[in-house]
Batch of 3 targets.
Target 1
Amino acid sequence: EDGVCLVYTLHTSASIVVSENWDASIQEDFFAALAKLFPKGVWKHDAVDGNGDAHLKSVLFGPSRSFPVVDGKLVLGQWQGIALAEFDGPRKREILVMVAKG
């Protein structure tokens, strides 16, 4: 059936992202770029638990993404993949996936 799939992380220092799913170097580039934008150890929140950069990165990308479902299948582009962007780990994470008929 047709509908929408929601993928949601229940955390404030991780995000759900869509990125190229073929060349792993894009993941390295992604995290290298974010490290330049949000360096570690310079944020007020670091005094609390040392992960201010992780929270800022998560806010930028958000906790969820939604995807079309057509004929019972998730619709993604040829090179697209869904990933959890872990900004403060590794840690045990919970991901909620819901599918609503459309």
Note: The first strand starts at residue 3 and ends at 9.
Target 2
Amino acid sequence: PSFDASISDIGCALWAGARLDVLPASFVVTPDTLCSALREHDTTHVDLPPRIVAALGGRNLPGCVRTVIVGGEASDPAILTSLA
């Protein structure tokens, strides 16, 4: 919550009446753990940095995910195309 973009992420979710799930700092992000957490929390919207999207390696996100926001650093257009 100390990063300026976190304010819009938090605000958009809560102002829309949604539930906001924030993974603990101790959470180790791998493709498997990320997909499992998204499925477990029935996540519909997720905000990921491009390096995490790249680490997914074209793996499909769980079906509950409807919107993926990618930002925070430059993105590889090929990776964004595969995600779309």
Note: Helices lie at 4-15, 31-40, 50-55, 77-83.
Target 3
Amino acid sequence: MKAHFTSADLKMIAMGTMAIDHMAVAWIYMYGYGTDPVWSKVGIAMRLVGRMAFPLYGFLLVQGFLHTRNQTAYFLRVLGLAVISEIPFNLVVSGKIFWIRAQNTLVLLAIALLCLKGLSVYQKTDASSENDPSAALITSVPASAVFMAAAGMALAEIFRADYGAAGILFILAMYWFRNCPEKRTIAGAATLALAEGVFYGGTACAALFFLNRYNGERGRNLGYFPYFFYPFHLLIFYGAGVVIHGIHF
């Protein structure tokens, strides 16, 4: 019997794998344990598990965009949370309050939402795909949509958002092939390999197993917990590291 996962299930898996990934960053690599042969292997294993988080969040972003009643409000929530999360992100990855070398993943998600809004206007699909997801056919890709996607990828690189242009491509693939699981899986695997290389990207593809078994249901109501989990868990991990090792600069 094929397993089915609700949106709430996918969110819980995404939060759990993300937490494991950030534990490795905050507690192993931040304090130099990554140079130890044993801790290095532990850190790599934890980060491999954590590679599943972004694909799940990217897929859930698309689902949220498709089902929200107010796309503008949805965008503003993600953008606002990106701003709130920047300092916790900086502290975990650099030990500094201000760090311009990279921006948190929610910055990428906010940019992706702008791209999705553009694609929702320009994309043309076969009408039968609404009733038969396997019959989805892309009839045309307007030049305006291509330029808009390219602009989103450029913004991701300019702002140095986590996962960069390849991350935007992954989310756009999740949207463009939303009615065709086979094409979505191929495109998703290709963009994940592009974003993270064959080693880590290959592990990230494990997320495709879960998202391809999404049953379209909301599941239990998690409220705003998944939104605030991102900055709060980063602050907790950083704070625990400070208690154990002291402030790191």
Note: Residues 125-139 have pLDDT under 50 and may be disordered.
